[in-house]
């Protein structure tokens, strides 16, 4: 789920920070620049791990700051396909079930990757698993907001997002809002045994335990 990415960058240290040790100033600047940012095809940057190499510092004409090439390792969040993660349901829509990990919200479980058969309830704004019972009957299991959910990572999507321009007095149109891209999304799936809401399987385990206890009492 977390990995180390080896990165290289030229770090600018302004003259105001010349009284700080170079390595400390560089660390602060790298974290300020990258923490909680998404790097294309790399992942969500979490924190600096260590500095591998510090190059020579130079001062460019017309700029009093120092510029130093740094090779470093950064802790990055990017789950691999097949990883199993537990999060919480953030919301539901016809697009699917939206999951949050607390520090990362752009996780989607599409309808095709839900337990089958499932339906979307407009009034409740929730997906429902129509859990089959004996004799063709079924029991509705709602996927409510805030419920812990276990899912398998099926893939991820990176998109280049354009820089946001200066604020405008004009109200943004719906079309311009829809053009805003999510730089990094994770796709998940719960359409297999043991995945989905934790409460589903807790209930089934409890029912199994109750049935076993009842059987033992009957044998006695």
What's the structural domain tally?
A: 2
Structural class: alpha+beta
Report the top-level CATH class of the largest domain.
Answer: Mainly Beta
Tell me the major beta sheet. 5 strands, mixed, barrel
Coarse morphology: elongated
- Mean pLDDT, to the nearest integer, reads 87
Distance between the termini: 49 Å
Query: How much helix is in the residues?
Result: 10-25%
Strands ordered across the widest β-sheet: 5-6-7-12-11
CATH superfamily of the largest domain: Nucleic acid-binding proteins
The CATH topology of the largest domain? OB fold (Dihydrolipoamide Acetyltransferase, E2P)
The CATH architecture of the largest domain would be Beta Barrel
Oligomer: single chain
What fraction strand? 35-45%
Order of helices and strands: EHEEEEEEEEEEHEEH
Number of helices: 3
Q: Number of DSSP strands?
A: 13
Task: Kindly describe this structure.
The protein has a 5-stranded mixed β-barrel. A 4-stranded antiparallel sheet has the order 1-4-3-2. The longest helix has 22 residues, at 198-219. The two termini are 49 Å apart. The model is unreliable at 174-178 and 207-212 (pLDDT under 50). It is of the alpha+beta class. The chain contains 3 helices and 13 strands. The protein has 2 domains: 2-77, 2-Layer Sandwich (Dna Ligase, domain 1); 84-160 and 181-215, OB fold (Dihydrolipoamide Acetyltransferase, E2P). The chain is elongated, with a radius of gyration of 25 Å.
